[in-house]
Amino acid sequence: MNPATLALLGAGGAVGLGATLLVAVLVPQRPDLAAALDAARAPAAPHASVTAEPATGGGGWRARLQSWQALIEARLSATRLTAPEADLRVVGRSRGEFLLTRVGFAAAGLLIAPVYTLIFTTLDLGVPVAVPVVAGLIAAAVAWLAVGQHVTGKAAAARREMRHALVAYLQLVALHRAAGLGIGAALDQAATASNTWAFRRIAAAIASATRAGRTHWHGIAGLADELGIQELTDLSAIAASAGTAGAGVYTSLLARAGSLRAQLQADDTAAAAIASTRMAIPKALLAAATMAFLIYPAITALTAT
Fold first, then answer.
1. 3 state SS of 280
2. Nearest CA-CA partner of 204 in 92, 98, 87
3. Mean pLDDT for the stretch of residues 204-215
4. What is the pTM of this model?
5. Residue by residue, what is the 3-state secondary structure of 193-253?
6. Collapsed DSSP state (helix, strand, coil) of residue 50
7. What is each CA distance from 263 to 3, 171, 190, 203, 257, in whole angstroms?
8. What percent of the chain is modeled with pLDDT above 70?
9. How many H helices and E strands in the chain?
10. Is residue 73's pLDDT more than 80?
11. Digit-coded pLDDT (tens) for 170-196
């Protein structure tokens, strides 16, 4: 096998490995919320310095890699690099993990320059060194922005899912109130009606507030600030009016659920219209390519004469 074939195989393998790692990181599994909450409620371990030596016994190389990863994440988290803090709280990722992913993919993009410079030199193609260097810088910038955009998109999808779940939650709270339950008991019972992550997040926020000696609506208000969802703030205000002033909230809850449902339907309709508009672009390109294919013989015949 000649050197050119080996170089092409190496380049193809590098591109395939990079694409595989990109898919593996940008499409992670959803973390288990119950395990995360249990870990947050566990008593804090004695403080250990992040500069401690990696463990060498027991877990072997896997434990050492995890220790080094934790060390790098802690160092990156202490830097001034920007990170979408609110979106990271929604998706359940730490600042250090996000920055490690971002820096790692940017560094992988920069590796394009030396790798392809070596390939071009081996094949004796005479390509200037500036070409792979510029390509590496562009790839690093795209990777840096893509990781942030991915987290932002996941957070937006999670907020949208929470709003859809909130419609059902508002209706359930209204029904429990109509059945004679107090506002606190109604919020508790409605949160246990489903095992989806949105209902579990609401139940966890309420449970955390009650354990701290605060009211249920304070827990919902804290969750609203954490997720950045205004509708949770409205629910907290409605519950507070019922809990402090004894106001009837059945009609208010159903009205808020109806308005939120109408808003979500309008947003879904607008998103569908935008997607339909975007589909027209590849159709137009396909039609243009077909026309060029059909008229190419005629144009070549005219130019030949």
1. helix
2. 92
3. 89
4. 0.62
5. CCCCHHHHHHHHHHHHHHHCCCCHHHHHHHHHHHHCCHHHHHHHHHHHHHHHHCCCCHHHH
6. coil
7. 62, 16, 22, 25, 10
8. 70
9. 12, 0
10. no
11. 899 888 888 888 888 888 899 888 888
